[in-house]
C-alpha cells in the first residue's frame, strides 16, 4: 500500500494555515510541522491540566497520567522499557547532561572516547571537552570527498581496547548519509565500548526500533518529529544505572529521573503522547497492525519509502548541474531527504531569494561547522539546505526545482 498523502497532510494543521501554506516547506530539518494530535493534547493540558502533576486531586492526577502515557507509549513504539525514556529541554541539553555523567564515569581512568567530525556540534563539542579531565578523545574522520564514515577507520580506533564510548550520528544534518547503527554498535560492544547515537536528523523519517539498533543511548528532538519543543533521550537501563546520576540524590533509583537535573516541561511531555497518537492513526489508515513496536516499524518503513521516492527527482536535478556541489550520497535510498549543496557564492542570499519565490529553506552552517570544514566547504558561504519529510508532495519538489532554476 502506498502512502496516502491526502490523509497524512490532513493530520497537520499547517497545510491549512493562511501563513504557512503560502510556501512549500523545505526546512523540516530545522523543525517539522506539529501534528494535530500534539496540538490538541497541548491545548487540553494548558486548558484543563496546567497544575503541578501527581498530587491527589483530579486535574493533577490527569496531568500526571498524561505525562506517564507519553513516556510509556513512546517507549513501546521504540521497543524499549518505559523508564528508559526521559525528557529534557532539547537534545543539546540532554547530550550535555549525558556527557557530564560520562565525565564522572571515566574520570581518573585510562580511557578513550571516539567522536566523529560528521556530527552536528551538539554531539561533538560536549564529548571533546572531556579531554579537559584527561580522557583521550579520538576522532573518526569522514572522507573529505564523500562525507562518509568508514567502519574500517573505526576498527583501527577501537583496536587497543581503551575506548569506552563511541558517539556518532544516525545521519548527519548536512551529509545525510544513513549510518549503519546496528553494525557500529556491535563493533563498539565487541571492543568493550558503549554507544551514543544522535538521532535528531534521522528520527523525523521514521521512529527507530532502539532495541534492534543495539545502541546504549539514542537522542532526538520532538519538535523535529512532529511534536513539541522537547528533547527525548532513550538511555538503556544497564548503562543509565552505571553512569553517575546527574539529578537529585533521592531520584537516583528511577532511571528517567536519574539524569534529569531540572524540572521538566510538564505540558510538552504530555503533548508528546500525540506523536504516538499520530503514528497509530497513520498505521490504522494504512492497514499496519501489530503491537506498538510493530506499528512503529511499519510506519517507519512507509515514511522512508515515500521520502525516497519524492526526493529522488531533486537529487537527479542537482547532480546534473555543474555549478554546485551536492553533499552526501547521490542516491535517495542511502540518505535522509535532507539535501545540502555548496554553491559558488554565499548560500543565505539564495535561500532568501527562494523564500521570495514561495520556497521555505535555509542557508548557513546549521551548526555542522566540523563536517563542512572537513569537506572543504567555505564556512563563510555555508550550504543551501533543503529538507523534506513524509508529508512533502511531488508537486512541492517540482516547485522547488523550478525555483532553483530561477535562483541559480
From TrEMBL:
Q: Per its UniProt record, what InterPro entries does this chain match? A: Aminotrans_V_dom, PyrdxlP-dep_Trfase, PyrdxlP-dep_Trfase_major, PyrdxlP-dep_Trfase_small
Q: Which Gene3D superfamilies match?
A: Aspartate Aminotransferase, domain 1 (3.90.1150.10), Type I PLP-dependent aspartate aminotransferase-like (Major domain) (3.40.640.10)
Domain called Aminotransferase class V: residue spans:
25-235
- Write down the species: Pseudotabrizicola sediminis
Query: Is Cell inner membrane there in the keyword field?
Result: no
> Where does the source fall among the domains of life?
Bacteria
Instruction: Please give the name of this protein.
Output: Aminotransferase class V-fold PLP-dependent enzyme
Instruction: Spell out the SUPFAM superfamilies in the cross-references.
Output: PLP-dependent transferases (SSF53383)
Amino acid at each position: 500500500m502506498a502512502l496516502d498523502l491526502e490523509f497524512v497532510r490532513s493530520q497537520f494543521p499547517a497545510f491549512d494555515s493562511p501563513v504557512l501554506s503560502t510556501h512549500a516547506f523545505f526546512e523540516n530539518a530545522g523543525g517539522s510541522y506539529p501534528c494535530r494530535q500534539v496540538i490538541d493534547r497541548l491545548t487540553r493540558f494548558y486548558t484543563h491540566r496546567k497544575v503541578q502533576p501527581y498530587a491527589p486531586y483530579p486535574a493533577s492526577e490527569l496531568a500526571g497520567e498524561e505525562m506517564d502515557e507519553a513516556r510509556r507509549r513512546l517507549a513501546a513504539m521504540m521497543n524499549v522499557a518505559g523508564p528508559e525514556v526521559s525528557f529534557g529541554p532539547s537534545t543539546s541539553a540532554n547530550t550535555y547532561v549525558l556527557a557530564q555523567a560520562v565525565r564522572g564515569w571515566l574520570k581518573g581512568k585510562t580511557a578513550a572516547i571516539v567522536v566523529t567530525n560528521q556530527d552536528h556540534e551538539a554531539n561533538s563539542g560536549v564529548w571533546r571537552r572531556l579531554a579537559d579531565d584527561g580522557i583521550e578523545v579520538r576522532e573518526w574522520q569522514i572522507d573529505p570527498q564523500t562525507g562518509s564514515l568508514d567502519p574500517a577507520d573505526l576498527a583501527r580506533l577501537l583496536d587497543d581496547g581503551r575506548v569506552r564510548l563511541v558517539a556518532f550520528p544516525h545521519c548527519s544534518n548536512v551529509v545525510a548519509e544513513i549510518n549503519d547503527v546496528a553494525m557500529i554498535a556491535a563493533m563498539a560492544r565487541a571492543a568493550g565500548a558503549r554507544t551514543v547515537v544522535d538521532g535528531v536528523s534521522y528520527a523525523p523519517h521514521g521512529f527507530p526500533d532502539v532495541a534492534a539498533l543495539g545502541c546504549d543511548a539514542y537522542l532526538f528532538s520532538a519538535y523535529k518529529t512532529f511534536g513539541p519543543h522537547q528533547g527525548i533521550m532513550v538511555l538503556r537501563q544497564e548503562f543509565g544505572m552505571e553512569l553517575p546520576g546527574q539529578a537529585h540524590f533521592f531520584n537516583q533509583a528511577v532511571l528517567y529521573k536519574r539524569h534529569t537535573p531540572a524540572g521538566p516541561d510538564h505540558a510538552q511531555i504530555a503533548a508528546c503522547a500525540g506523536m504516538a497518537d499520530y503514528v497509530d492513526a497513520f498505521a490504522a489508515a494504512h492497514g499496519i497492525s501489530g503491537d506498538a513496536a510493530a506499528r512503529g516499524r511499519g510506519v517507519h518503513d512507509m515514511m522512508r519509502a515515500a521520502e525516497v521516492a519524492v526526493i529522488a527527482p531533486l537529487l537527479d536535478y542537482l547532480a546534473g548541474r555543474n555549478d554546485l556541489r551536492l553533499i552526501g550520497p547521490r542516491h535517495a535510498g542511502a540518505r535522509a531527504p535532507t539535501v545540502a549543496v555548496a554553491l559558488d557564492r554565499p548560500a543565505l542570499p539564495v535561500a532568501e531569494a527562494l523564500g521570495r519565490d514561495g520556497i521555505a529553506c535555509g542557508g548557513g552552517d546549521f551548526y555542522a561547522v566540523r563536517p563542512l570544514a572537513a569537506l572543504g566547504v567555505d564556512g563563510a558561504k555555508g550550504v543551501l539546505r533543503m529538507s523534506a519529510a513524509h508529508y512533502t508532495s511531488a508537486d512541492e519538489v517540482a516547485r522547488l526545482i523550478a525555483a532553483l532554476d530561477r535562483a541559480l
